[in-house]
Every structure is written in C-alpha cells, then in structure tokens.
C-alpha cells in the first residue's frame, strides 16, 4: 500500500520506457519513448488485494462459526454466506485471469517487443537506415528534376518541329515561286534554243512576210512620221514575252524563216503566246492556229516538210515534235502560219524556239 501511495503522489501518472541511441545529433536520431498509463500497470495488484480481502473475510466467518459467542447463528445463514463468498472468490479469480491476459497482450508484450527492437538496432544500423532514407529522398529529387528536364526537352522538340514545318512551307513556297517564274520565262522547257537571238539566231527578211502596218502603231508630227511602234520579226527570237512585244503580220496567213545559230538535227519546235489573263483585249484571237514547219539548207534552198500542227492558245507554251525522218541537218527553219483564232486583220507571234542536236540522234 505504501507503493500505491507513492505512485498516487507522483504528478505524472505515466510509466515510461526509454531507449536512447548513442551519438544522436539530429532530430531523426532522437530517443524513442513508449508511454504506458499507470492504471493499466496497477490493475493486477488491485485484483490480488481484493481477492485477499475476500479470502480473509471468508476465513473470519468460518472462525466465527466455531466461536461459542456466535453459536446462535443459524446453520442456514452461515451456509448461505459461505456460498456467496465462494462464488465471489471464483468470479474474482476469473476476472483476475482476464485482466492479466489483457495486460500481458496489450501492455507488456508490445513494450517488450519495442525494447527488443531498440536493443537489436545498433547505432550503426540506425544511422545506416537514416542514410538510406536520405539517399532515397535525394534520388526522388533527382528523378523529379530529370522529369522536368525531359518535359522541357519535349516542349523544345515541339517548337523545333513547328519551326521545321514553317521552313518546309517557306521552301515549298519558294519552289512554287521558282516554278512560276520558270513558266513565265519559259525555262521549264529545259532544251537548248538554237533560234535564240543572243547566241546568233537571225531572221531571213527576204523570205519572211511583211510586218503589219497600222496607223495606231505610228507616231506623226505635222504629217511626218516620227517612229513606228510595230515590232520587227526578230522580236520572236528574244525571251521577253510581254503583252505587245510581238511580231504581227497582216491577215491570218504568213511565214517567217529563221537562220539558226548552228546547223543541227531538228527535233522540236516551241511556240509561245501570252496567257489570256494578261491580254489587254481579253481574248487570244490573234494567236496562230494551224501551221506547218519546214527544214531548209541555205545552199540549195531545199525545203523538207517536218510536220503540220495545231496551236492551242489556252496553253501559252507548247512544244511540238518534228517529223525529221530523213535525219538531215538544217541551218534554217521555216514556220508557215495557215490560220489564226479569228482576228481578220493580223496575227501575232511572240516567240519561236528551235530545238535539236548538233550530232545525229540515235534511232529509238
């Protein structure tokens, strides 16, 4: 009972079990403590004292039955009291067993396990577990940083892909523009032009039709003609194909003889006219329609028929294959226009190109 009194005088009604590791310098190395309420610890002692008190009372009653002073008690009352005390002792014994089992399983066993675990964990292993935990945290931080870098790289790749698509679109636009310029300039034919004026092609004016004469194409001052806007026949040998920069001859029938820069084996002839979209009149009735081509040699003026063709003005540049079955070289070519597309006054030629090879072509 003195022990119980001293415990009641204690201001902290707890029982502490403490295990401290050596060399603790951080919060993670702090000692771990298990707290057990005092009421759970003193419960078995209370039960033992109650059983002892009841046993003492039972023995006292038994002694009182043998004492002459209490001979007047009835046998029934004594037996009943004895039976009640026996039952009380039995119930208290069961209660004591249950309380002891509860205390052992809930209080004592976990405490012993904690103490055993702390004893088994040496300071080195404890520090090792802490270092592993720190390494795991550092690894998680590295993984997070790498994930952010990968996301940034992914966004950069998307931006670069968009830039590449823009560059491709610009390149395609440039290619389209180049193709348009080639079509405008006629370079997409990609064949040498032996009738080109800049390399030596000329017009045989003696065997060429007269240029169309019109008052609108002349300039006068006091009945004196100053100059003539009509273009000469050799304009058809130049690459400048713009509206009005053409050679016109009267009516729908005429011819032009071109002296080539070299004696060649003729293979193709190309006729070029302006597109309808840039025509000032909005139509192409002055364009040639039916025409024939002849190959000529200067020496004998012998003409060789190379083919009859139809020019479609919807296609501003058209190349026609010549029927040079004799495979003879020529230094002149004769273009004879038979009809045009409806203009009764004149016909316009913008450009004529002659293609071939300087050596005899091999038969296919």
TrEMBL record:
Segments forming a coiled coil: 129-170
PROSITE patterns registered for this protein in UniProt: SUN
A GO molecular-function descriptor: protein-membrane adaptor activity
GO BP annotations, alphabetical order: cell differentiation; spermatogenesis
Top-rank lineage group of the source organism: Eukaryota
Residue spans crossing the bilayer: 92-113
Signal peptide from the UniProt entry: none
Domain SUN: 200-359
Keywords: Coiled coil, Differentiation, Membrane, Nucleus, Spermatogenesis, Transmembrane, Transmembrane helix
Subcellular location(s) per record: Nucleus inner membrane
InterPro entries, alphabetized: Galactose-bd-like_sf (IPR008979), SUN1-5 (IPR045119), SUN_dom (IPR012919)
GO cellular component terms, semicolon-separated: meiotic nuclear membrane microtubule tethering complex; nuclear inner membrane
Protein name, as recorded: SUN domain-containing protein 5
Organism lineage: Eukaryota, Metazoa, Chordata, Craniata, Vertebrata
Gene: SUN5
């Amino acid at each position: 009972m003195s022990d119980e009194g001293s415990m009641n005088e204690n201001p902290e009604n707890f029982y502490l079990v403490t295990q401290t590791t050596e060399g603790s310098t951080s919060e993670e190395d702090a000692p771990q403590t298990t707290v057990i309420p005092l009421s759970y610890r003193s419960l078995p002692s209370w039960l033992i004292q109650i059983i002892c008190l009841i046993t003492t009372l039972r023995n006292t009653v038994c002694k009182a039955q043998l004492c002459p002073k209490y001979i007047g008690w009835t046998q029934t009352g004594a037996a009943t009291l004895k039976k009640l005390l026996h039952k009380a002792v039995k119930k208290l014994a069961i209660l004591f067993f249950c309380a002891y089992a509860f205390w052992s399983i809930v209080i004592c066993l976990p405490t012993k396990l904690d103490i055993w675990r702390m004893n088994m964990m040496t300071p080195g292993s404890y520090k090792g577990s802490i270092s592993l935990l720190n390494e795991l945290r550092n690894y998680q931080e590295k993984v997070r940083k790498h994930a952010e870098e990968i996301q940034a790289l992914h966004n950069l790749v998307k931006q670069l892909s968009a830039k590449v698509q823009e560059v491709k679109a610009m390149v395609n636009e440039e290619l389209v523009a180049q193709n348009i310029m080639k079509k405008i300039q006629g370079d997409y034919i990609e064949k040498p032009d032996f009738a080109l004026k800049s390399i030596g092609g000329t017009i045989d004016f003696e065997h060429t039709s007269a240029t169309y004469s019109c008052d609108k194409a002349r300039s006068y001052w006091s009945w004196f003609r100053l100059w003539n806007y009509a273009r000469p026949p050799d304009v058809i040998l130049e690459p400048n194909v713009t509206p009005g920069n053409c050679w016109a001859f009267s009516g729908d029938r005429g011819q032009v003889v071109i002296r080539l820069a070299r004696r060649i084996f003729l293979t193709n002839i190309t006729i070029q006219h302006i597109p309808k979209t840039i025509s000032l009149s909005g139509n192409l009735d002055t364009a040639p329609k039916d025409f024939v081509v002849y190959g000529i040699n200067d020496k004998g003026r012998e003409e060789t028929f190379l083919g009859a063709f139809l020019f479609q003005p919807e296609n501003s540049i058209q190349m026609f294959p010549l029927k040079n079955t004799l495979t003879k070289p020529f230094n002149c070519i004769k273009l004879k226009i038979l009809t045009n597309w409806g203009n009764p006054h004149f016909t316009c030629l913008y450009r004529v190109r002659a293609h071939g090879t300087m050596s005899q072509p091999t038969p296919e």
